[in-house]
Structures are given as C-alpha cells and as structure tokens.
Amino acid sequence: MSNYQVLARKYRPQAFRDVLGQEAIVTTLKNAIKFQRLAHAYLFCGSRGTGKTTLARVFAKALNCQAPTDEGEPCNTCSSCREIASGNSMDVLEIDGASHRGIDDIRQINETVGYAASSGKYKIYIIDEVHMLTKEAFNALLKTLEEPPPKVLFLFATTEPHKVLPTILSRCQRFNLNRIPLEKIINKLKRIATDQNIDSDDDALHLLAQRADGGLRDAESLFDQIIAFHEGRITVTTVADVLGVMPKETLFALDQAGKEGKLAMAFEIVHQIFSQGKDFIHFVESLTDHFRTLLLIKLSGPNAPFLTLSESDKPRYEASSKLYTQEQCVTILDFLIEAQSQIRFQSSPRIALEAILMRIMRTHQRLPIEFLVRRLNELEQAIQGTPPQPAPTPHQPSPQPAPNIHVQPTLEKNTSQAQQSSIPSVAPAPKVIVTPTPALGSITEDPTPTPRELGIRNKPKESTPLPPQSQPPPSPTAQVLQNDMFAPIPPPLTTETPPSAPRANKQHRYDTILQFAAIELEGTIQKKQINPR
Ligand SMILES: [Zn+2]
C-alpha cells in the first residue's frame, strides 16, 4: 500500500508559528501557558479548515512538552510531542463528538478524568465537533467541566457554536477562528508546490485559494486533486477544469460583448456551461463576484485594500470596469443577488441563465433613471418657457384640468425669467427654451418620478379664465398615453392659436419623454428610442 499522505495532513502545522491567520489566538494561548493562567475548558469555533483541531493539538503539545522553546513553542522532538503527533498519547485523548455523542461516551470520560496524567503534566481531552453531543451528554459533562480535577483540560472544537448548550459555553474560554486570508493560503500553496517540485502559475493558485473560501484544508485538498489529475505545469485552465468553473476570460469576454451589443455571446457561454457540465449556480456566484470587483474598482481603484486581485488580473479588471458606469454596476449587482436566490428554483435553469446574461449585457442599452429624470426636467423647463396654462375658474370648470408640473427649486430659478416674460395669455409662438440641466445633486431621495409627479394635478396655477371651445383635441399620442397610464392628460400647450410647427415639436418631445418614462418604468427601454432626432 502506498504511504502517500494527503497534503492537508503532511503540511499540518506542528507549532504555533505555522498556524495561519490566527495570530491573536496564538498569542493568547502562549501567554496562558507562560503565565500559568489556564482555563478548564477552551472552545475553538470557526468554519471548516480554519485550524481548530490543529490549534487544539498544538496547544496540547505545548502544554505537555518536556522541552518547550523560549517562545512557548512545542519542541516536536520529545516523547510527549511525538506521541501526541501520532495520536498515541495516553494523556491527550481525542474524541470525535460526531460518533461519540451519547451519554455513555461522556460517562467514560467522567470515569477516567480522575486519573492523573502519566507524564505528570496535563490530562487533555480534545472533543471535535462538540456541538454533535446530545443534550444528556452535555449535561453529564457539565459537572466535570465546572470543577475538573487539577491538571485536566478540555479543548472543544466546533463549526456550529450556537448548537452548544449555553451552560457549556459559559464554562469555556471561547476563541473564534478567522477565515484564513487569501494571500496566506496562496503563500502556503506556493510553499507546498516548491516542496513537491510542482510547477504552477500564480493565477492558478489564486483561483484555487479563492475557491477554498478561507479554509486552508479545502485549498490543500483541491490542490491534491489537481496534482493527481494533471501532469506538468498547473495553469489556471487546469484548475478551472478540475473545479468545474468557467475561466475569468469568459467574464471579461461577456463585458466586451455586452458593450458591443453582441447578445449571442449569452447563448454561447450558457452552452459551454451546460455542455461541459459546469455548475451554473457557481457561475452566477462568480458573476456576482465579478461585478462586485468591478464596482469596487470604480469606487476605490484597483489597489483597494479589500480587493484581492492578482497582479495579472488587475489591468484586465480595470479595463472591464471602464465599460460600465457605477450605476450600472450597482444595478447589475442588485439584479444578480436576486437572481442567485431564484435560479435554484427555475424549472429550466438554462433559459433562466441565458436571460440573466442577456439582461446584464443589455444594461449598456438601458437608460439610467437619473437620465430619464434629467430629460423630464429639461422638458419641464421647455414648458415653463411657454405662456402659462389657462385654468378653470370656479364658475366655469374646464373640461380638462390644466397641468401643474412639478419642478425642482433649482430649475425654477432658471426659468423664472422665462415665465415672467411670457405672462400674457395670448402671445406669439414662444421659443422653446431648453437650458442645460443642473446637476442632479438636488435630488436627494429616489429620483424615480411617480406618474402623479409626472403629470398633472388639478390645482390651477393661474386664474385666467379659459373659453372651453378654445381647446383643441389632444394629440393621438397623448390619448394613447392617457389610456395607458397617465390620466388626466394635460391640454396642449396653446390656448387660441392652432398648433404651429414649434409647438407641435414641443408636444412631440413631451409625448416622447412620457413614453420613455412609461417604458423605463416597465424596465424595457432601448437607448435608440431616446433620441427621436
Ligand atoms: Zn516536546
């Protein structure tokens, strides 16, 4: 039988200095030994592969070592250290809480706990997956835990501390292990690769470490799997193949295709995912991660401290981030987070995924709502520049109410002069005034206009009486809009003169923008529809 040892076991830390990413905990434990301030029980919590059991073993070794170093590290050469490392120690007993979870198992501990350690030092019980113990077992342990015989220590490890009884928790010193930082995992993998004479690309190790999500053991196990699968240099493609993930190039290509409007790319990518049997849920997750990275780059640049990009990835992400606006990134992220939770339940995930990709690609053609509001504001200014709208008097109600268009205060300043100069109700055809829109800084809340805000309230602005017969019928477009969503529709922008060319143009612009509003509110706008000219 081969004596091959998996990487996770072969490179398991044997001293405090080898434990990755848990510096504060290591310092606390070393000091506890140094100053002889030991608790009866310690609880190590953390997600899988972060080093809970490893830390407990190193701690046990350091406690019982016959010749610890000045830094409080176990020597790893004395008989105690060697016995603990090989799992043969009489004084350090490791119990798997998942398979020894009953009251009888705990009774055995209670019966042996009174015997002194053979080495004369500490008797240590390491219980892994302690949350698996039954309630009765926990209760049986309680008394021993509260007042254990001298020189008896319990070290517990668990991934789910919330399942441990509070009465147990309160008797333990608790340590929460961090997820191991990406950089540290990559460095450890590099050391292993060098040690094993394995050629590997940095990007490949980066992808591998990323997939392990802060768990060193996962990273090492995956590395084992890749070494077994592949001979020769380990590249990012190798890793992507073994992990069943799409390479990052696919995501960069998606960004580019979206910018160029090549929607067929969505079908191509989904075809690859399904024909190669890749995990589509994981693909959506990596897509979300991709857009998070793009947004972060837009917000803080490629060297932001919480971005963990490899040097070769940075320029590629930077280039991709330039294809989107900040707003677009936020919109896509929002959408992807929602899609992530829904795609699992789709009866045809393939079509759902195609739709997701096309929706992302079409973001380039979608109008941001801020743009729409700006266009509406422009139009409002144009209307403000015309003669004031006639309004019904109390005695003679108008068949159609006059519009009262809500304008931002900053806009009113711009247009007040135009208003004043156009007070006479019978005026020559006014000029359409479209001034550049002021910055949107004045919009502090959700800028999306409601239909009510877009239109059209009954409250009259001016009290000029209006002869009812002077109202020409609304344009066909306006009638369509009225039927569709906005009621009532404003009367045309003139009182007596028939619609002249500039006014017709203005009406047309108004209708067009209202149509944009209607379309955008349904979430299906095409950029080419915006500019009628
Ligand atoms: Zn030793």
- What is the CATH superfamily classification of the domain at 7-176? P-loop containing nucleotide triphosphate hydrolases
**Kindly, what is the distance between the CA atoms of the first and last residues, rounded to a whole number of angstroms?**
79 Å
Number of DSSP-assigned strands: 5
For this entry, what is the oligomeric state of its chains? single chain
| CATH domain topology of the domain at 7-176 | Rossmann fold
| Number of continuous helical runs | 22
State the CATH class of the domain at 7-176.
Alpha Beta
* Beta strand %: 5-15%
User: Ligands bound here?
Assistant: zinc ion
Please mark out the parts with pLDDT under 50 across 5 or more consecutive residues, or reply none. Answer: 388-449, 456-500, 524-533
Structural class: mainly alpha
The whole-number mean of residue pLDDT values reads 78
Percent in helix: 40-55%
Question: What is the CATH-assigned architecture of the domain at 7-176?
Answer: 3-Layer(aba) Sandwich
Shape: elongated
What kind of sheet is the major sheet?
Answer: 5 strands, parallel
Please state how the strands of the largest beta sheet are arranged side by side: 2-3-4-1-5
Task: Characterise this structure.
α9 (202-212) packs across α10 and α12 (248-260) crosses α17. The radius of gyration is 35 Å and the shape is elongated. A 5-stranded parallel β-sheet has the order 2-3-4-1-5, with helices on one face. It has 22 helices and 5 strands. Mean pLDDT is 78; it is low at 388-449, 456-500 and 524-533. The chain is 48% helix and 5% strand. The chain is mainly α and 533 residues long. The protein has helices spanning 7-10, 23-34, 52-64, 79-86, 103-112, 135-146, 166-169, 182-195, 202-212, 216-229, 236-243, 248-260, 264-275, 280-300, 313-321, 326-343, 349-361, 369-384, 409-420, 451-454, 476-484, 501-521, and strands at residues 41-45, 92-96, 123-128, 152-158, 173-176. Among the domains are: 7-176, P-loop containing nucleotide triphosphate hydrolases (Rossmann fold, 3-Layer(aba) Sandwich), CATH 3.40.50; 182-243, Helicase, Ruva Protein, domain 3, CATH 1.10.8; 248-365, Up-down Bundle (Zinc Finger, Delta Prime, domain 3). The structure holds zinc ion (ZN). The site of zinc ion has 9 residues, from α4. Zinc ion binds at residues 65-67, 74-76, 78, 80-81.
